[in-house]
Amino acid sequence: MDKNYMTEETLDKELENLINDLPEKDDFEQNIDRYIKKKIRKITVRTVLAVLVILSILFLMISPVMNASFLNPVKLEEKSDRAFLKTLRSYYETTMPYVELCDVEVKQKGFAGYDIGLVVSYHKDVLRWGTVNAQVDVNQGKYENWQDPNMMMVHGPRFDSSESEEYVKELMKELEELPKSAEVYLSIRENTVRNVEELRKEAVELEWIEVYQPNLKNEEAPFPMCGLSMKMNAALCDTDRREKLSVKQLKEVYLSNLEILMEYPEVWTPLGINWRNYFFPVEDASYIEYIYKDAKKLKTFQTEGYCISGKRDEIIAYLQKADIASVKVDGVRSSQWENQ
Amino acid sequence: MEQNEWKQIYEAYQKPLFLYALSLAKNVQDAEDLLQETFIKAFLAYKSGGSIKYWLVTVLKNEFVSMMRKRKREIITEDECIFQNEASKEEPVCERLIKEEERHQLFMVIQELPLKMREILIESVYFHMDDKTIAKLHGITRENVRKIRSRAKEKLIERYERLKEGM
């Protein structure tokens, strides 16, 4: 190209040549294919990231709201008095003989879900505690997926049957066949109401009492009564040394347990109440409040149904003199050394 | 539109479009991305009936704008959008693509033209668009298109001559 003859025509020609100088690009189909794959990769990565972000937001925003809306064992355990353990311990003591909750291990899962490990001392078994031996999940305020291989927390009916004298005699005969060292656990209801003070003097171990509240018994429909453990294996506080307490003090412990249940109804109301042959679903603490108010007026501390334990001969001797209305064998161990 | 037809369109317009993309993006990588984005968009969304050249150029320009927006390097001055592309400062734009020295110089001179002038020149010379289509694309009159193109060529000749004298 001559610099002296640059015209529009030669410029057009040069411009045309310029484009011819550019290298050919790859095949169209290959490009499309490559591009679509790249786009799919990009979209996949973005989608995964978006899902992760959304899940994180959901977790960070919704989980705390749900934790605050439903029963939160972690929060209760962080209180100075370990309110979750305290309430569940009182619940089991008040509603079930032999079951003593010694400790809980709470793990948060998020979205108002928790793993609860329970350290239970089962009074019918050899004295042993310290490791988790039952588990349950708490999901949105409800107890689910119980894992209780020793069936410790399973309620069995008691105090409600009516046994004849013959039945009691038959039972005593069967008990005589046990080894002398056998430990026998019984649930007994007598025809007459007994003073707790008097029962404690008997030559058997008083395990648990159903506190007799005559006003509740006079209710038209069956009204569940609450109880008190007469011995505790784990002394978490001074009042757990039950054998050293007076009857007046025992009554105070009973009232104190009811107060705890009234304070944290969200902990135990989902479990309901098992009493004798019935199960009572509970919505709030009003039922416990009613019992509490009535119990405060009690002038005597009495029981109609109670659980005892003792050696074979001690139990037989006791059955011979007691005025039995109902008796149920809760358990027999061949000796106190069993399973040691 | 059949895939074969798209192949033909690709072969016919890939070079002009790449040059157009290069003149906007001022770096080879971005120009290649723009080229591919433009063809994919056209391939997926174009419906027969309109001018394919018009469609391709419009898509290319839109893709360039959105690319720059993504990089948040948009600076608006007067009626014109000037996009600063950092990569353009990194290397001579097409040294490795346009080997022949004089044509490389010619491309550099084109790059020095104002944006609108450059666009109209490329649309006219490489896409063989008529003045009516170019006018529609830029929202100006046909007369203006003719004047701008004519001025662009004058400037090119003048600068190119000056450049050659200095060589």
How would you explain this protein's 3D organization?
The complex is a heterodimer of chains A (340) and B (167). Chain A is of the alpha+beta class. Helices cover 41% and strands 24% of the residues of chain A. Chain A has 11 helices and 11 strands. Chain A has a 5-stranded antiparallel sheet with strand order 7-6-10-5-11. In chain A, strands 1-2-3-4 form a 4-stranded antiparallel sheet. In chain A, strand 3 (134-139) and strand 4 form a beta hairpin. The longest helix of chain A has 42 residues, at 28-69. Chain A is elongated, with a radius of gyration of 36 Å. The N and C termini of chain A lie far apart (110 Å). Chain B has 167 residues and is mainly alpha-helical. Helix content of chain B is 69%, strand content 5%. Chain B is built from 7 helices and 2 strands, in the order H-H-H-E-E-H-H-H-H. The model of chain B is unreliable at 74-91 (pLDDT under 50).
Name some characteristics of this structure:
A: alpha+beta, 4-stranded antiparallel sheet, 11 helices, elongated, B: mainly alpha, two-stranded antiparallel ribbon, 7 helices, 69% helix
What string gives the helices and strands of chain B in order? Answer: HHHEEHHHH
- Low-pLDDT runs of 5+ residues of chain B are 74-91
Helices of chain A, by number, come to 11
What summary fits the major beta sheet of chain B? 2 strands, antiparallel
Total strands of chain B: 2
Tally of separate helices of chain B? 7
Envelope shape of chain B = globular
The first-to-last residue Cα distance of chain B is 49 Å
Structure summary, number of beta strands of chain A: 11
Give the neighbour order of strands across the main sheet of chain B: 1-2
Helical residues, percent of chain A: 40-55%
